[in-house]
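Weekly structure sync, notes
Attendees: PL (lead), two postdocs, one rotation student
Agenda item 3: pending single-chain targets
PL asked that the sequence for the first pending target be pasted directly into the notes so everyone works from the same version. It is reproduced below exactly as submitted, 486 residues in total.
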Amino acid sequence: MTISIGTVGALATGTTTVTPALVGAAGDLAVLQVVSGHPSDSVPSTPSGWTSAGSFSGGGGTFGTSAGPRRITYFVRVLTGGEAAPTTSIPAATGSVISGRVMNLTRSAGTGWRWAAAFGEDTLSGTGFSATSLAALTFTAGDVAVIGYGVASNADSYTAEALTATGITFGTVTERADAVVAAGNGASVALATATVTAGSGSQTPTVAATLAAASTGVAGVLRVREASAVLTATPQSVFPPRNLVAATGLTSDDIVTATLYRQVGNNLTPVRAATGVDVSTASSLLRVDAEQPLGVPVTYIAYLTDVNGAQWIVGTSSPLTSTAASDIISDAVRGTGAAVKIESPLEFKRDRDATTFNVGGRLVVVGKPRSAPTTTMTVRTETDEDGDDLSTVLDNATEGILLVRKQGSLSRLDGAYALLDDTESPNWYDEYRWFALSLARTEDWPDSMEAAGYTLQDIANNYSTLADLAADFGSLLAIALFDFGG
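Predicted structure, written out during the meeting:
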């Protein structure tokens, strides 16, 4: 895995607005470094389609010509091709100054980009510039640091740019750009890069340089990494249908919490027991989705939060459609279910606790909101095995809750129902049975209850010895991802 420095674009300068040239191709990470100054310390606007990676103002003093604070801001964008050059601006004011430059990074591997920024200031006017960041960044070998400088002097230049962090070894710091900004009250800006060659951990970086003229200012480090986190969803060879959803590669991206969602159209539903999961000590998060609609394409999305508080979104590459030859009544927590045919039209009854008063010949009704619907659902099983399966589900339903799904899911029907009572009516002449189920629409099982996946017995059905199992799998993760029902 290697990140390479692409092209460093031309510097655009002005007093209120700049539109620096865009460089890079589809898949690249474009980095826009902005150095600005303003009497109100305004933050530059975020260009359309770009993301702010961080902004910081410092240097001390009162804003003026070659004096006072300057601000450095990073914007980033993963290019798709055909984008316009970015435009960013600050309000017009006496002495206002803004400059911007775009550079692009390319990657050889990974699943995307990750970044984090930290900033510091040097308030001691001199030629030995040094700014220790106020926040720590995580570093690991292969990371690239984009180092930005902005000092108040409008007649300055930089040499001996340097980057240090305890326990982290950086390769050669290479200056990529160094320029004077004459607009407004002026500034001098520089851009450099370095690659982490050894060491890892969360450390506070210090940016240094030698200035040609004494000044104060700010510096920022944008740490860039090739992403490794990936989300996959695989149908398991079981009945009722279930999908195994796996977010892997979390450790390398410094992910500390993860939430997995099922997406149908524009609607997101959390996967069972996968909301805000602490994965700070885990490299992966696996969950079974046993509640997906049937006959409907679904995709999965993971919201990942890293140690710096940044949120990243990764999704599956293609939709899955779970199919069944029947309607299904199941217990998603236990993983059991039965094939049925829902026969009767449903009559949903909703009660309302209300009292009627006769007031001067007028009826006044005082009541509470109406209840959740109740119904009697008649279903048919067509084999002894299906009938026995349904009886098992009814006997052992977790918290007395059933999951009902049509063969072609209907949102107005599909859902969780509390079982009130049931009546079984077997046929004399064949294996058909009718079940009249008295149900009340209810909420799903608590999110803390994880859906059942493959058990040790499933593994035992496929392997007679641990040696055979070890010969086929290199890790516990590989076992967890395997389809033992296939």
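Discussion points:
- The helical segments are 384-396, 456-460, 466-472, 476-481.
- Residues 420 and 438 are 5 Å apart (CA to CA).
Action: rotation student to compare against the earlier draft before next sync.
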